[in-house]
Write a structure and sequence with these properties.
The chain has 9 helices and 9 strands. By secondary structure, the protein is of the alpha/beta class. The chain has 2 domains: about 160 residues, P-loop containing nucleotide triphosphate hydrolases (Rossmann fold, 3-Layer(aba) Sandwich); about 110 residues, K homology (KH) domain (GMP Synthetase, Chain A, domain 3, 2-Layer Sandwich), CATH 3.30.300. The strands form 2 sheets. The chain has a 6-stranded mixed β-sheet with strand order 2-3-1-4-5-6, sandwiched between helices. Strands 7-8-9 form a 3-stranded mixed β-sheet. Helix 6 runs antiparallel to helix 8. The radius of gyration is 20 Å and the shape is globular. The chain starts with a strand and ends in a 6-residue tail after the last helix.
Length: about 300
């Protein structure tokens, strides 16, 4: 009988390198918000991949960036803090980037953890560029594996999974095989609404918002059909941002709600009544009671 492997795996990398997309592709469920905006993931999210011979618990960390607020500091601290507690580190870089994040790489080297280098977005460069990157990183650290891939074109995702499993030890299943995340339903709803806002809003607005579910309960229609009744709030930093989020005649807010409701109904497998309000909180990014939600646990 072959051994069953399990372990915790963290994905580390700069903002917008594709960490969340990689996890969502591996797990086959939408666990982390995915947008083309930087700093989408604000806290470490666990996603669970169950296979016949293994259980891999992924930690999708916030993208590493230059801190500008208490929230930014907590996000970076959370990402780095995940390294000592895992079995394998997956360090994600972009094939299109010529910059090496030396401070992060140094922390990975100091951790002495098994580390897989992932070179994402290989569909945007030629083979010579990929070969040059591999050679460059080989000279910097002894990675247990280097996997060039493209999430967008689903290239080498299976190879990454195999390399992760290869580097895990024998162990138990930590979660039920039916689970794919340890986030609560409330957290998944907040992530879904925030993702839609990130995709639809102008660049200056998205990272000045956070979403809070105020009420979430199951109800029944007059025909005895179950549905989720959800009240939520998008908090923003400025009055001008509030106007952009709501849009002319409420058009933008309706669009955010419509796209979010569509995803939520698929995820919850039932009808959803989603109400979204917009409020101003001028200094929430420095508010300890809000920021503590994003600390690594």
């Amino acid at each position: 009988m072959s051994e069953f492997k399990s372990g915790f795996v963290t994905l580390i990398g700069r903002t917008n390198v594709g960490k969340s997309s990689i996890i969502n592709r591996l797990v086959g469920e939408k666990v982390s918000a995915v947008t083309n905006k930087t700093q989408t993931t604000r806290k470490n999210i666990r996603a669970i991949l169950n296979t016949k011979g293994s259980q891999i618990i992924f930690i999708d960390t916030p993208g590493l960036h230059r801190p500008k607020s208490k929230l930014s500091n907590v996000m970076i601290e959370s990402a780095i803090s995940s390294i000592p507690d895992v079995d394998v580190v997956v360090y994600v870089v972009e094939a299109i980037s010529k910059r090496i994040d030396e401070p992060t790489l140094q922390k990975i080297i100091e951790s002495n953890k098994k580390t897989i280098l992932v070179i994402n977005k290989t569909d945007l460069v030629d083979g010579k560029r990929v070969a040059d990157i591999i050679e460059q990183y080989k000279n910097l650290h002894d990675f247990v594996a280097i996997v060039p891939l493209s999430v967008k074109q689903n290239i080498n995702i299976d190879e990454l999974q195999k390399e992760i499993e290869r580097n895990l030890d024998e162990g138990p299943a930590y979660y039920d095989v039916e689970e794919y995340t340890d986030q609560t339903l409330r957290e998944l709803v907040e992530e879904t609404i925030r993702e839609k806002a990130l995709k639809l809003l102008q660049d200056e607005v998205p990272h000045g918002i956070y979403v809070q579910v105020d009420k979430m309960m199951t109800k029944k229609t007059r025909y005895n059909e179950k549905f989720f009744d959800i009240n939520s709030t998008i908090f923003c930093l400025k009055e001008s941002h509030k106007g952009i989020i709501i849009g002319k005649g409420g058009s933008m807010l309706k669009k955010i709600g419509s796209f979010a409701r569509e995803d939520l109904e698929k995820m919850l497998n039932t009808k959803v009544n989603l109400n979204i309000w917009v409020k101003i909180d001028k200094d929430w990014i420095n508010n300890s009671s809000v920021v503590k939600k994003y600390k690594y646990d």
